[in-house]
Specification:
Largest sheet: 7 strands, mixed
Distance between the termini: 33 Å
Number of helices: 6
Strand order of the largest sheet: 1-7-6-2-5-3-4
Radius of gyration: 16 Å
Strand content: 15-25%
Order of helices and strands: HEEHEHEHEHEEH
Shape: globular
Number of strands: 7
Length: 196
Amino acid sequence: MHRTIFDTPIVNTLLRLLSIGILKLGGWRVEGNLPAGGGKSVLIAAPHTSNWDLPYTLMVAFSLRLNIYWIGKAQIFRPPFRGLMMWLGGIPVQREKSNDFVAASVKAIKAADGPLQLVVPPEGTRARARYWKTGFYYIALGAEVPIVLAYMDYATKRSGLGPVFQPTGDIVADMSTIRSFYAPFTGRNPAQFDPQ
């Protein structure tokens, strides 16, 4: 994987302190820790209903000392912002084209020398999505890494890392369990989040 702001010395320390300060001033509470064995993992990013989710996610990641990479639509990686978005941990995905993103992600996680947390929004869009995409599930299953149920609740201003979920291969049962965890959470635009 490419170098990011999270593994850039000095800058990451300064941004961690700044992130902690901004979140506290905004009334946000950061909860949880990366579990043992979660150095390489897939983090679910839900609910995802607003462009504000990205800066908050980055600040929470700094606060928790994570080394995240995140999935974003290819349009936000156009010049002149491509370099910045990549440095922030972004990985462009063209949603309208079929690709081997799952296979490439599995390969990258397995090949990584150090910790790597791949953040994937299961809705695949900020708009209301009735069905969650399952890419995050198959990435974790293929890479043999846990899924960490990360959350951002705008109603209570809580964000962080919830329980660890180990995929069993029974996607119907597993997705039902995962989605039920997110039922109490509220996105910035509540009408656009459907955890059921």
